[in-house]
Amino acid sequence: MHSKFHTSLDAMVQHYLIQKDEYHPQDEQSFVISHVHLLAKLAQWLVIYAKNKITLDLLLAKINKKEFIEKKYLAKCEGIIQETDFTLSGYLYKDEDKQKMVFTKTEQSHAKVVKAHFKIQAQISNATWLEATLITGRKHQIRASLSYLYHPIINDVKYGTKQETKKYMIALYSITLIFHKLSDHLSYLNEKIIKIPKNIIK
């Protein structure tokens, strides 16, 4: 999210809220507006921002818990997948030599349990568009899971793709956020669905 070549998204959001008179840095003491959750540099995401410290603390406590914030993703991966609707469970660990996450069906002491649900949205040429719903939220879980299935995400060289386009970003998108059971001043968000259109499928 930070680059010496481009303005960061954090800076753009801060500027936008200052222009709208919804954020006053001089009144916030040490609080600086920033994204709530981790971001994948090469993917394209819906991003949650908190305007104040109280909201930030509440969201940080909920962000990785599906019962509070449900996230759906769209991935374009190599090849034609036969199963139209499936759940993939296993373990995820970091390969320190290759500096990437690895999905496996074999339990390992240093691995974390992972689970995700996948549903085919479209199949075009030699590629499959999958909607992914994370039941556990782990770093690079979707990327490593699809690599394990021998259907890596288009442009995701790190996880084994053979199909590349001229685009810099990998074909992984955060498309939906659904809020549940939030309390206090965030309760107005409950059952709200925030999503981007699926017209990116092509």
Could you characterize what this model shows?
There is one protein chain. This protein has 202 residues and is of the alpha+beta class. The protein has one domain (37-46, 68-200): 2-Layer Sandwich (Pseudouridine synthase). It is 14% helix and 29% strand. The chain is built from three helices and seven strands. The protein has helices at 9-19, 53-62, 141-148, and strands at 69-78, 85-95, 100-104, 112-124, 127-134, 172-179, 193-195. Strands 3-2-4-5-1-6-7 form a seven-stranded antiparallel beta sheet. Strand 4 and strand 5 form a beta hairpin. The longest helix has 11 residues, at 9-19. It catalyses: a uridine in RNA = a pseudouridine in RNA. Residues 16-147 form the Pseudouridine synthase RsuA/RluA-like domain. One of its GO terms (molecular function) is pseudouridine synthase activity. Pfam families: PseudoU_synth_2. This is RNA pseudouridylate synthase.
